[in-house]
């Protein structure tokens, strides 16, 4: 029996939708050796851990609770940036627009929150502060300019992300906010969002390029990034709340780029020192992955790094 043109179009649309899913990486194979090493690394952690890794050159992956929902903490600022750039692409905003700060925008005393009422600041600088130093007042401002959480979540859904959502200040997501905080995601989706931006597939190639450049200027580099040679370029966003620590990183390694995301929740250790178990786990995994993909690298982090870092920041 002949199929109608509508049937063919339906099949094509389903195939495209599946291909667009972040979970549907084509020809991906599990790296069993690396999986075993990472499972050993997280053994004994007092909390829940999710890990997703993909070598962008070989498409070999690691999936450990990769589709489990976790709090994003400040990693939600990556989807916020995507929603903002979608508005820019639609002509509703200009990246170099001069904004006027109002005291009503104040959330905390970060850089943006310390501005005086009536101060002028370019949108591009607010975005930079959101991604680089994780400025919270600036991030909530960007969320509002992007149309709010509802608009950002619509962009995420349209682009195949089913786990990642903005919860804070988003009507209808109050229960999710109570459970996960500002946002929620899975290790797979956050890592693949980085890959999407890197590959020029988020909003547009030009928008992706600008967003990616913003993500390569990470101020908070004391965790996984500290375990990489300082001359290796990375894109990164991390997050921390009392019972969760997280980090998503795309590494421009000499033998091929790789992307990974580590997220924890229900952590027993709620301390805010550099030797917090969550922070230590991020460093352990960052070092493990670098040594796995670059086994001939002779670089090692300073022996006294953790002690020095703790004394420097506390």
Automatic annotation (TrEMBL):
InterPro entries, sorted: Beta-lactam/transpept-like, Beta-lactam_cat, Beta-lactam_class-A
EC main group: hydrolase
Xref: Pfam families: Beta-lactamase2
Catalytic reactions on record: a beta-lactam + H2O = a substituted beta-amino acid
Signal peptide span: 1-20
Domain Beta-lactamase class A catalytic: 50-264
Gene3D superfamilies named in the record: DD-peptidase/beta-lactamase superfamily
Superkingdom in the source lineage: Bacteria
Record-level GO BP terms: beta-lactam antibiotic catabolic process; response to antibiotic
A GO term, aspect molecular function: beta-lactamase activity
Protein family membership: Belongs to the class-A beta-lactamase family.
PANTHER family: BETA-LACTAMASE, BETA-LACTAMASE-TYPE TRANSPEPTIDASE FOLD CONTAINING PROTEIN
Protein name: beta-lactamase
Species, as recorded: Runella slithyformis (strain ATCC 29530 / DSM 19594 / LMG 11500 / NCIMB 11436 / LSU 4)
């Amino acid at each position: 029996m002949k199929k109608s043109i509508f049937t063919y179009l339906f099949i094509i649309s389903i195939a495209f939708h599946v291909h667009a899913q972040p979970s549907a990486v084509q020809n991906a194979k599990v790296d069993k050796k690396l999986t075993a090493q990472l499972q050993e690394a997280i053994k004994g952690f007092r909390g829940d851990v999710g890990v997703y890794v993909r070598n962008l050159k070989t498409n070999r992956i690691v999936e450990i609770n990769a589709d489990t929902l976790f709090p994003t903490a400040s990693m939600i600022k990556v989807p916020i940036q995507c929603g903002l750039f979608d508005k820019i692409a639609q002509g509703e905003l200009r990246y170099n627009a001069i904004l006027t700060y109002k005291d009503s925008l104040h959330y905390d005393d970060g850089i943006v929150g310390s501005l005086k009422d009536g101060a002028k600041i370019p949108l591009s600088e607010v975005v930079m502060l959101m991604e680089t130093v994780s400025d919270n007042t600036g991030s909530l401002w960007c969320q509002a300019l992007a149309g709010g959480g509802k608009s950002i979540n619509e962009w995420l859904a349209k682009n195949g992300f089913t786990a990642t959502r903005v919860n804070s200040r988003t009507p209808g997501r109050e229960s999710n906010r109570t459970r996960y905080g500002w946002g929620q995601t899975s290790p797979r989706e956050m890592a693949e969002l980085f890959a999407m931006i890197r590959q020029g597939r988020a909003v547009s190639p030009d928008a992706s390029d600008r967003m990616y450049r913003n993500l390569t200027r990470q101020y908070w580099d004391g965790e996984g990034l500290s375990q990489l040679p300082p001359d290796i370029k990375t894109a990164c966003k991390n997050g921390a709340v009392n019972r969760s620590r997280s980090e998503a990183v795309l590494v421009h390694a000499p033998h091929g780029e790789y992307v990974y995301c580590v997220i924890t929740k229900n952590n027993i250790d709620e301390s805010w020192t550099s030797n917090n178990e969550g922070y230590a786990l991020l460093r352990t995994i960052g070092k493990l992955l670098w040594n796995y993909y670059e086994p001939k690298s002779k670089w090692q982090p300073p022996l006294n790094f953790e002690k020095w870092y703790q004394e420097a920041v506390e």
